[in-house]
Amino acid sequence: MIILLLLIGTALSAQPPGFNYDEAKVPKYTLPDPLVMADGTPVKDETMWRKQRRPEILGLFAEQVYGHTPKTRLKLRTETLEIDKGSHGGLATRKQVRVWFGPAADAPFMDLLIYLPNGVKGRVPAFLGLNFGGNHTTQPDTEIRVTKSWVRSKVNNFQASEKDRGAEASLWPIDMILKRGYAVITAYYGDIEPDFDDGYKNGVQPLFYKPGQTRPEANEWGSLGEWAWGLSRALDVLEKEKAIDSSKVVLHGHSRLGKAALWAGAQDERFAIVISNDSGEGGAALARRRFGETTARINTSFPHWFDGNFKQYNDKEDSMPVDQHMLLALIAPRPLYVNSAVEDAWADPRGEFLGALGADPVYRLLGMPGLLVNEHPAVEKPSLDGTIGYHIRNGKHDVTSYDWTQWMNFADRHFKK
Ligand code: GTR
Fold this sequence. Notes:
By secondary structure, the protein is an alpha/beta fold. Strand 6, helix 6 and strand 7 form a beta-alpha-beta unit. The radius of gyration is 20 Å and the shape is globular. The two termini are 38 Å apart. The N terminus is likely disordered.
């Protein structure tokens, strides 16, 4: 468990040398205007945003950044693996549901780990997010199935083991969330797509290949697109879960899973609220800012995350037709929450804040209050009252109870709890 934590820890908190961490050295840049069409025509009203500019931006992200998600709908099969009505000392009903991607007996599947708060009247709102190590790493609970999918840790030859149980529990303070009346649902991202450059042979992509196709085209989805797709499939299943109010599903994700959550929330407007936790480059942080991780670096370290077309922007961020504030604007008018950590320079906290601020004009056009602050807020002084929320907390690249508390405070306001 300690070794897994170390592995996850180093991967998550690295601040590699040779990159810019000096605000004074950020070169000047001009962001594309989310409210001006690619041909220069200004977006004059809500209808023009919805009918023209929003689809244009969504199309640009699909074509140039994350790759298009296949339109074909797979028939999902589900099987409830187990139910325990007295989980977490009676606080919750725990369910594990296997979701098969397609009718084939050997179809790939993801396991949903679902916690429903007990003793709450009516359907409950829910938090949905992927995890990094397997469902069994989110809680010490021995009833949680250990994934058989590839895991990031080399320790056991990329296989999950009992030793990892609960290794990520600090990222999932379930009792606290349940006590506030929210359901919690998670799935392992590696069930959808193993996170290594495997030539796109594993995961869900091959299910969608045309005859003879062996890898995605330059404008077809990479791994982030697959994880985003998996989140939408989880929501398909939650729509059938009677205890959950599927119109109140809060989508959240940390780091690469924050990038995936934003892309899922942009494409799938059924998600009520979207939260980006330290999503950094390719997430909430502006690419043009050249602070911390860069496009060239992310495309080199993780060539499988984005689509083929995205590689042309290595060291050419200024030629991108979009920047990440426009991804955040695709969440509008739904509530959006972005948060950062002081010691997470690699993810560019200020760039994440400026990404959120850059989405604000779209919220205003749509009649929503947007982000209520113009300056990067002081540490642990969250801005919770707008339709865009933001905080920066002390500490490193991580998910903490502090983050969860702000997210729930934000969600409570929007769900009028
Ligand atoms: C880093 C990567 C970041 C972030 C992080 C993570 O190595 O450079 O973009 O996604 O990993 O997801 O853990």
